[in-house]
Design brief:
- The chain has helices at about 5-25, 140-185; strands at about 30-35, 40, 50-55, 55-65, 80, 85, 95-105, 110-120.
- The chain is of the alpha+beta class.
- It folds into two domains: about 30-140, Immunoglobulin-like (Sandwich); about 140-188.
- The strands form two sheets. It has a four-stranded antiparallel β-sheet with strand order 1-3-6-5, with no helix packed on it. The chain has a four-stranded mixed β-sheet with strand order 2-8-7-4, with no helix packed on it.
- The chain starts with a helix and ends with a helix.
- The protein binds copper (II) ion (CU).
- Copper (II) ion binds near residues 24 and 108.
């Protein structure tokens, strides 16, 4: 008859401990999925990075950095329930790193980072007229400018080449004509 109060006592001791352990764990929000996904290669135009958590989050702080380490975000990240969205405008193809931090519903600060590869279209030169992005992407116009001058240089070389080629042709013609004249003189 003594084991029943013991079982009750054990239940009374274990139940609060279980509630303490499971309570905060149930309210603790984790990262469920991301768009683009970790390790994914994006070939379509990308306008935003979206992080989806298992529960409501607030106070998002998200930085999406391009291959040069400069942020490609065009506005602050916003939280809507369990989804965090940050608008982006990639300026280069390559590895993009998402570094994020949010406050879970239970008050815990969560943070992490992951990377994806962007292989979609990029502006040929920074569109300063429409994009309010603070990042001035270094325009790589130097290689493009060097190409026409190289083409002009090879085109200039073709002139002397034609003259040089013409000399052997004239010499060969002179030899043939001379040979024919000599043969005709021998016959007569
Ligand atoms: Cu938590």
């Amino acid at each position: 008859m003594t084991h029943r109060p013991r079982a009750l006592l054990l239940a009374l001791l274990v139940l609060p401990l279980w509630l303490l352990g499971a309570g905060p764990a149930a309210a603790h929000s984790g990262l469920s999925s991301t768009s683009p996904a970790e390790g994914a290669t994006v070939s379509d135009p990308l306008g935003a990075v979206v992080l989806t958590f298992s529960g409501a989050v607030r106070g998002p702080d998200v930085v999406v950095a391009g291959p040069d380490g400069v942020s490609v975000g065009t506005a602050e990240a916003t939280a809507d329930g369990s989804a965090v969205t940050v608008p982006v405008a990639p300026t280069a193809t390559g590895t993009h790193t998402v570094t994020w931090a949010v406050t879970s519903a239970d008050g815990h600060r969560l943070e992490g980072s992951y990377a994806f590869t962007y292989a979609g279209p990029v502006p040929t030169r920074p569109a300063a007229s429409t994009t309010p992005a603070p990042g001035n992407a270094p325009a790589t116009t130097a290689p493009a400018a060097a190409t026409p001058s190289e083409a002009a240089a090879t085109r200039d070389d073709s002139g002397p080449n034609l003259l040089v080629r013409g000399v052997p042709v004239l010499l060969a013609a002179a030899v043939v004509v001379g040979g024919v004249v000599l043969l005709r003189r021998r016959r007569t």
